Amino acid sequence: MRNSRGMLGIALGLAAGLAFGAGGVFVKPLLESGWSPGAAVLARISVAAVILAVPGLVALRFDLRPLWRARWTVLVYGLVAVAGVQFAFYASLERIPVSTTLLIEYLAPIALVLFAWLRTRRRPQAIVLAGSVLAIGGLVLVIGPGGGSLDPLGLAFAAIAMIGVCVYYAIGERAAEQLPPIALVAAGFVVGAVALAITGAVGLLPMEAVFTEVPFLGGSAPWWVPLVTVGVVSTAFAYVAGIAAIGMLGSRLAAFLGLSEVVFAGIVGWLLLGEALGPVQILGGILILAGIVCVRLERRAIEPTLAVELGGEPVPTGSRRP
Hints:
two-stranded antiparallel ribbon, mainly alpha, 2 strands, 2% strand
């Protein structure tokens, strides 16, 4: 049963990575037609909030009291893991190259490993450290060196985005203790949408939208078609699948699986937009996948109850998941 749960978690994590990775293809027509990134993000999150509202209420059995009891978790999730990541990401893009911003944001799995090391004072297993090195190398090859000037404020915003991603995984690992995951995601989208709307209203995040026909997957479509697609597939489904995977696998492995988003983004861009993948990007994708496999091979620490049942003292065999 544990193996089946683990395989399902991996499948959901990869599905979330694919959905997130395809988001760029779906939202690109809006950006090219004149939408500002802030408006596109606010719209996709708002669409996802509407889509998940009823499923979230059903999961709560239309009882909002659990939401109130978990209000701080919902607020942190919505403000930090949803709105904070998006705001910091685009604020960083205004000051440093996009590749540098992406590279820093995708260091979240490595940050989780380091945080667990500091918190438990146990050195991660060699296989996890090896996986981290492979993943970093793969990211550098896939995303490419940033170049350009490195504005300190831009680097700080990129670091804030990375922290927000870490919060996404940390909260997701314990979400089921307070709320059904789909209810947490739905409520988090509502909080995030309100927060982003406020940043747009006060001028911190430009909000511009053009309601016209846009090129879409080789043809043309009304503006709302790519918007609904990215809202349903790359936002609502991606977040729900991602948080379900975190609950099954833990934050560490799920975070490394999240790096598959970079690989899938390249594959989807190649298949749908004809953006060729070079040998360097392919090698980088292989290294990222190798890093994920290494983390998956981490030995679990023996649970104390199991050790007692086996007639011995609990002996730690390696680092625990953060």
